[in-house]
Amino acid sequence: MTASTMDELVSLCKRRGFIFQSNDIYGGIKGLYDYGPMGVELKNNLKQSWWKSMIYERDDIEGLDASILTAPAVLKHSGHEDTFTDPLVDCKSCKARWRDDQLENNTCPNCKSTDLTEPRPFNLMFKTAIGPVDDGTSFAYLRPETAQQIFTNFKNVIDSTNKSLPFGIAQIGKAFRNEITPRNFIFRVREFEQMELEFFVDPGTDEKWHKHWVDLRYNWWIDQGIKKANIELYTVEKKDLSHYSKATIDIMYKFPHGNEELEGIANRTDFDLGSHTKNQDEFDITAKVMENKKSTTKLAIHKLEEKKWIIPFVIEPSAGVDRGVLALLNEAYFNDVQNSRIVLALKPHLSPIKAAVIPLKRNNEELVNLAKKIKKDLQKIGLGRVILENSGNIGKSYRRHDEVGTPLCITVDFETLENNTVTIRDRDTMKQQRVNIDMLESYYSKYFD
Fold first, then answer.
1. How many CA atoms lie within 13 A of 272 on its CB side?
2. Sign (positive/negative) of CA torsion 51, 56, 61, 65?
3. Helices then strands, each counted (H, E), the chain
4. Intrachain domains 6-84+124-330 and 353-448 with the same fold
5. Is 105 left (phi over 0), alpha (psi -120 to 50) or beta?
6. Cα angle 37, 39, 42; round to 5
7. 109 preceded by cis ω (within 30°)?
8. Does the domain made of 353-448 have the CATH classification 3.40.50.800?
9. Residue 11 to residues 15, 28, 131, 333: CA-CA distances in angstroms?
10. What class does CATH assign to 6-84+124-330?
């Protein structure tokens, strides 16, 4: 079964080194979290799986890693400076601060008072000074999304890769939003990572491509281990669409705190490329001339057969890495009451540790040296992290690795010294089998295939 409460996941994450409250020894900062030894591996594996599906398995998408600091002009023309706000209210009774659109019956969730201030706009973007003197005139924003640097690099990617429509640019990176009320563990935070694709298509084909990417992304999450019963597609109502969106479909997941967005797939039309090309100035597409009073670049594609320039439409699948980690932890959490153990039944390609090699006796030099050699040989295969678990207690080692999601435990015992075989224990079934060391690398590779 999946975790019934968020408390179970938070407890597991701290106990086994997945996620810690950031700056915890100084009381912590709400909405900021640090990924521990197991968490960073799980997070990297999720990102690697996404990157592989977007870049390595396709020939029509290129990767990018752009700057976090963003020029104000970029976010002015993208519409973020004017629209990236939340309506904010203060409770006059307890002084708590809330988003107006998330209150029920205009009531403070903290003290139940209805004595609230009038809503006022609150900009979600973080500012930072550039240069040695903070005089208020030279500043940048910490990017609120990874998309804009993809759009501003559109021509650079076109010129350096010679791509033609349809094609995409993908990026994984940090984004920052000054959330009023961060909540639900790592679901809504102030510093987070996005896995974002901007897929550029011919105008008029955007609706077809939108549906295509919705289907692809839905099935990708199933492949990561999310059960179909726990996700659904939600069409965002027109009144709730972002300023750039023609249509958005959210992949919703049943998190411990409720049914909320895991990933959004938006049809951004030509809003972004058009905004950065025009800079709100003249753009005469019929005469094949682009006059830019503030921009030096035309973010468009020349259609030779039609003898004209076009601004592509863009389909954007955007997933939060942190929300993905939370969903996967919740999905994989299993309380095996019958065997008195907690199991994190992650898909093997996502597991933080791929295999643990365990010498039966920690002080037996012959067993430990052989275990070290096996660990080193398996690590060379390059499928992920393999560790030497030299705790001296085989039962506790199994339970620990059940909780962190290690698919295979390989025990080196005294029988190994006699017949060159080791015991392999499967995390999910707890079944054990003897395998010759000479066949171990082949067994290991085939398991993860």
1. 27
2. positive
3. 13, 24
4. no
5. left
6. 115
7. no
8. yes
9. 6, 17, 42, 12
10. alpha beta
127 Cβ contact list (under 8 Å, min separation 6): 139, 140, 141, 142
DSSP secondary structure, 246-299, as one string:
SEEEEEEEEETTEEEEEEEEEEEETHHHHHHHHTTS--BTTTTB---SS-S---
Torsions phi, psi for 192 (to 5 deg) = -150, 175
Q: Which two tokens stand for residue 17?
A: 């080194």
Digitized pLDDT (tens) for each residue of the chain, 449 residues in all: 444 689 999 999 999 999 999 999 999 999 999 999 999 999 999 999 999 999 999 999 999 999 999 988 898 888 887 777 778 888 999 988 887 877 888 899 889 999 999 888 777 889 898 888 777 778 899 999 999 999 999 999 999 998 999 999 999 999 999 888 888 999 999 999 999 999 999 999 999 999 999 999 999 999 999 999 999 999 999 998 888 899 999 999 999 999 999 999 999 999 989 888 864 344 343 333 333 335 567 888 888 777 888 899 999 999 999 999 999 999 999 999 999 999 999 999 999 999 999 999 999 999 999 999 999 999 999 999 999 999 889 999 999 999 999 999 999 999 999 999 999 999 999 999 999 999 999 999 999 98
Q: Please give the torsion angle defined by the CA atoms of residues 387, 390, 394 and 397, in that order, rounded to the nearest 10 degrees.
A: -50
Which amino acid does the sequence have at 390? N
Distance CA 414, CA 422 (A): 9
Write the CB contacts of 234 (distance below 8 Å, at least 6 apart in sequence): 249, 250, 251, 252, 261
Query: Can you give the residue ranges of every domain in the chain?
Result: 6-84+124-330, 353-448
